[in-house]
Amino acid sequence: MAVDTPGVRLMVFLTEDDRSGHRSLSEALLERAREDGMAGATIWRGVEGFGSSGRLRTTRFSDVSIGLPLVLEVVDVAERVEAFLAVVTRLAPGALVTREPVRLLRQQPAGAPPLDDPGPRTHGRP
Questions:
Q1: Which of 10, 79, 91, 119 is the most core-located residue (most Cβ within 10 A)?
Q2: How many C-beta atoms surround the C-beta of residue 43 within 10 A?
Q3: What is the pLDDT of residues 71-87, one digit of tens each?
């Protein structure tokens, strides 16, 4: 059965240097998105970019290719994304964040809970 649901894409702009304690901030946020049962999340690595500092981060010069730009992209229904935004605000208070409406299209087996079901998602795990 095809499911077409209004959703939100949240994009969090980070760098490889951003940390949450001793861990990569992007990985910590990705793990939390998974634990929270978000519909999907991906970390994208940029080959070149800059942030609020204006410092260019690039792969063009091997001796300065540290701290490359990263983007964490998370998609789900609006309520779940808004709840996850509170986590982002706490763990990455200085990060640039964008939100935009999207359509979530997914083939689901008969009897599967809809994307806007407020219950936890197990993604096939008991």
A1: 10
A2: 15
A3: 999 999 999 999 999 99
